[in-house]
Give the backbone structure.
Amino acid sequence: MININFVPDDYIQSNESRRTNLMYLVLFAVVMVMLGGSFITIKIRQRMVRAEEKLVNTEMTQAQEAIKQFEELQTKRKAMMKTALTTAELLELVPRSVLLASLTNELPVGTSLLRLSFVQKEPRRTQSVGPTSKYAKTQAAKTAAAQPKVSREKLLEMHIGIEGVAPSDLQVAAYIERLNSSTLLSSVALVESKEHKIDDTSFRQFKLTAILKKEVHLTQGDIDEIRAAREKAVYSF
């Protein structure tokens, strides 16, 4: 039996074209939906990343502030420690009253003090001949590195200026000799000695310099003995 198709070819082609167009539209819609979903997903991720970046920046700022405060505290702590060490090193090993009593005890008869001055100075540096060979320089560097570092405050010397009057140069010389034998002083030297007259009475006005010995440690018994000797000298005078 022969099948006869009464549908025109134009109608068949038109249907196939519509189906193809519909399929393209569906595919286009699917692609657009996928693109829209991807765009929305990307935007959401970008917002999340920005929020995380903002949070990280905030935490970093807080951490930087905490580090800055910690560094400031460390700097203040170091400054306070340095001040405390400097103060501790500058504390008088020998009280001024005890030193004055010792200077008074050594005065010869008829001699009196007029003025005292105390000045801290750095010790004079002696020029030494440096090593010439490379081996000697290396050994000198190792020795210097092995030696403990001493702060500048500990190197300071207490220089004492002494001014007074005496009947003659004999008493001045005796006073210098007594001070040189003292356990507190060293490098006692005469700066000047001038003659003065008051009402036909001659006397010598002298100036001395001395250095307080380092690492002087006086016991309470020594201090009491010096002060007692001063009181006795005052009453005997």
Q: What stands out?
A: The longest strand covers residues 185-198. The chain has two domains: 7-91, 96-123+154-236. Residues 7-91 form one domain.
